[in-house]
Amino acid sequence: MNINGVEIVDTFAEAFPMKATRIIITAMNLKWAYQAANAIRGFASSVIACGIEADIERELKPTETPDGRPGISVMIFAMSVKDLEKHVPTRVGQSVMTTATTACFSGLDSEQKVSMGKSLRFFGDGFQISKVINGKRFWRIPVMHGEFICEETTGVTKAIGGGNFLVLAKTARQGLAACEKAVDEIQKIPGVITAFPGGVVGSGSKVGSKYDFLTASTNEAYCPTLKGQVKSELSDDIGSVLEIVIDGLDEESINQAMREGIKAACSFGSAKGICSISAGNYGGNLGPHLFHLRKLLK
Amino acid sequence: MSALTFTLKSQPKFTLDMSPLIPDGLQSLTLEKIKKLKLVYGKETVRVETLFTVKGDDKNTIIINKSCDKLICVGKEMSVGSITVKGNVGDFLGQSMKNGLITVVGNAGSWAGNGMSGGRINVEGNVADYTGAGLPGDAFGMTNGLINITGNAGDRVGDRMRRGIIIVRGKSGNFCGSRIHAGTIIVLDKVGKHPGEGMRRGTIILAKRPAHISATFKSCGNLKMQFLRLLFTQLSNMDNEFMFFSKYGPEAHRFSGDLARNGKGEILILQTMNKR
């Protein structure tokens, strides 16, 4: 199978179960909402070392936010509810509460919840005020810019992490151009994020390492400089491999994101240096969610 | 299915305790059994059919027609369904209600929403004193829910309330929000003397500056309160009836108090409209 001269390798992406939450950050204007959102998604590219994976899902109009101000929805993924419980309050506290004029709300309704304002209220040092409006509890924490308003908890749902595809190109410049377009398309789809910087992974990993203390290490089969030295998956003409990793709320949204992303990458065609599209898998041992490239593109 | 309708045959001479006639208590009863239910009428008990004509079969939706202020404890302890009262109603409307909706197309007496812990009461006329308040000896007044009064309210609205929202679209009497522990009271027209007297926490939002604020409230100046933006947006989204809140802005003159009792409550006097 090929699209625009780009070969679609007969393989599959292997994804694994995660837990996710969505938070809504509002501010005086989008500029300051972005400041907070960018801060919270900083150092949140992979659960391997960051604890969570987070990214901006989309901008929200004032009519879509709880306080009628412009906002941004951010999705946060982790391996367990316990991890979310640990990281969400600290990140909201250090990244959102510290950003001027912001407020933070839950963007997901579910029975299972992790705390947000429930933990952060203590910053108010006894001057915090609780308000229950329409069945939801909000905390008003007096801060130097005025008041930081934060919903008590945010909902948690089952999710899927690690949907992915690899773009094999002649040069890094050509591969990156295709990936940028792919990420642009993926960002239009609700319920998915690409948590790595710019949505593109420059150093994709495999599970394990020769070193006992490492849980992940470089994926040598796709490193162009190791051709001839290891059992490589790359032909002679491939000089760069970039990966796009997608976390999503369900299989259907990841399917759609991979489909649109691959189509966008392939639109550059072989003429512009895109050789093939592959995917990262571990023989089906890592997770129960398998996304077969050819199947999802049919 | 048509709403279960109780129509008063004539105006009662004495107070009539309506507390048995709530959706929770009628679910398993046939129409005949409902007619034979006993109500406390003055010092006596009478059957429902003696005072009311009863029709309909939807026990989740109750309508009381030709009501008057002798009917007390309407919707007491209800937790499901709705009660619509056409006419005035007496004291203790929605006392200790847990959920559901009570609508009064008329005026209500004192102690409306006394001890309520959830649900919503709409009064399309005026209410007397002690709306959402606690009885002497109770630890708190209302502990949750929403009371929406289209007309005016009497004295001591929300006295000792613990949580919940009271909206008075007309005027409010003296001692509005007295001794409140928490919760939110909104008054959109004039308010009487001593609002927030003895309040510990909680928020009293006034659209008009009161004639008198106790000396134990300290001005914090004019502030843009993000909480007001959130509250008004949430109320506007909750119900079309509250869409008018979208015209109120977040700027308010904040008074903190009552400093004689901890001083962690606030009176917010709205400063601007249409500036969001």
Category from helices, strands and their pairing of chain A: alpha+beta
Which structural class do you get from the secondary structure elements of chain B? mainly beta
- Overall morphology of chain B: elongated
CATH architecture of the largest domain in chain A: 2-Layer Sandwich
Strand proportion of chain B, as a percent range, falls in: 25-35%
Helix share, percent of chain B: under 10%
Overall pLDDT metric of chain B = 94
Q: Please give the order of strands in the largest beta sheet of chain B.
A: 5-1-6-8-9-10-11-12-13-14-17-16-15
Rounded to the nearest angstrom, the radius of gyration of chain B is 20 Å
* Percent of residues in beta strands of chain A: 25-35%
Please count the beta strands of chain A (DSSP E, at least 2 residues each): 18
**Count of DSSP-assigned helices of chain B:** 4
The greatest inter-chain interface is formed by: A-B, 19 and 25 residues
* CATH topology term of the largest domain in chain A: Alpha-Beta Plaits
Order of helices and strands of chain A: EEEHEEHEEHEEEEEHEEEEHEEH
Distance between the termini of chain A: 10 Å
Total number of domains of chain A: 2
In CATH, what is the class of the largest domain in chain A? Alpha Beta
Report the sheet with the most strands of chain A, covering strand number, pairing sense and barrel closure.
Answer: 14 strands, mixed
Shape category of chain A? elongated
Can you put this structure into words, describing what you see?
The complex is a heterodimer of chains A (298) and B (276). Chain A is an alpha+beta fold and 298 residues long. Chain A folds into 2 domains: 2-14 and 160-297, Alpha-Beta Plaits; 18-157, Alpha-Beta Plaits. Chain A has 6 helices and 18 strands. In chain A, helix 1 (30-40) crosses helix 2 (81-96). The mean pLDDT of chain A is 95. Chain B has a domain at 107-270. Chain B contains 4 helices and 17 strands. Chain B starts with a strand and ends in a 6-residue tail after the last strand. Chain B has helices at 23-26, 31-35, 48-51, 226-238; strands at residues 3-8, 16-17, 38-41, 44-47, 52-55, 58-67, 71-72, 82-87, 101-105, 117-123, 144-149, 165-168, 184-187, 203-206, 218-224, 251-257, 265-270. The radius of gyration of chain B is 20 Å and the shape is elongated. Chain A binds chain B through residues 65-69, 101, 103, 127, 129-134, 138, 140, 146-147, 149, and chain B through 144, 163-165, 182, 184, 201, 203, 223-227, 229-235, 237-238, 246, 264, 276.
